[in-house]
Amino acid sequence: MSELRKDPIVDRWVIIAAERGRRPTDYETPAPTPGGPGCPLCEGNERMTPPEIWALRPGGSPPDGPGWQVRVVPNKYPALRVEGTPERHGLGMLDSMDGVGAHEVVVESPRHRWQMADGPPEAIQRVLLACQLRLSDLYQDDRLRYCVIFRNHGSEAGATISHPHSQIMAIPVVPGRVKSKLDAAREYYARKERCIFCDLLAQELQLGERIVMDNGRFVAIAPYASRFPFELAIYPREHSSDFTAMDEPTRASLAEILQQSLSYLRPALGSPSYNYIINVAPNPVPRPGKPHYWSTLHLDYHWHIEILPRVTSIAGFEWGTGFYINPVAPEDAARFLRDAMRGAPEVTSGG
Asked: Where are the domains of the chain?
């Protein structure tokens, strides 16, 4: 079984998942997975994946067969497993716990060559719905403290299967990077009684220079301290801490701006590899000995999406300092993407 180990100096956990070393693609550069008989995520190859957890089947077709639009299955090579307890073990300064969690794959389309950047938004809405429902279900398990929802597109972003898919990992700790955001948000609210994300968004809307698009419900910006060229962040315009509470009209608006954000990267970067992460709130279930654990999330946290094009490499300086060197000013990136947006054809529905 995998194991979580905590760095004894900094607030960082690492998953030691030695059993994933059995994967033949782990130590070589993967070639794109072809569609058809060779792809475990293509329609008709359902037998090649573990039994599905959830699927959207408008025609009422039976589970684990064709006829689905979106399908969620356990990862065949999970970094974490649902069995066990998250009790911590210690040896002096060294903390560890069993690798308890969940690792799921959201198969976004039965079509192998479907691209989220091409839409239509209705297809992306189905993916977002799957993520909402799975997050809500996973947070019923009080062992799981945080869920990471992410998409790796392209080999440079870590994708080993080219069929369109995203992943959900539920883990028994709140990661240090997430915790630092949550702490900052809580401290800001304690001082000002306002959400730090809402204040940031209001300031960016007033300045305008880093706004890429605004569809009334969501705003896409090039963050002031962008780590990567053409990095984007998407925020709900209205304060919202709970990704699972998004209704159908709001989900439609998010699908629209997410598709547009990805498509407008193409004029600048071609067809870049990218990661996107849906930054959700941690599980608010009370913890033993911590009765106020993240109890103010509904006031001070604001969920959001980060889109990270993989066009530069993280090298020695970045690893050694935690600083990033971005050769494209976010103001220039936002201006370029706005210009691309003005010249882009309208996206048609269908598919």
From this structure: 3-342
Global confidence as pTM: 0.88
**Domain covering 3-342, topology:** HIT family, subunit A (3.30.428)
How is residue 272 annotated by DSSP?
-
| Beta strands 232-236; 218-221: pairing state | antiparallel
- Catalytically annotated residues: 165
Round to whole Å and give the CA distance between 315 and 324: 9
- The encoded tokens of residue 23 equal 């994967």
Please state the length of the chain.
351
Residues 139-191: tens digit of each pLDDT: 999 999 999 999 999 888 888 889 999 999 999 999 989 999 999 999 999 99
Residue 144, CA distances (Å) to 55, 137, 138, 347 in order: 22, 11, 7, 39
Calpha distance 334→122 (Å, rounded)? 26
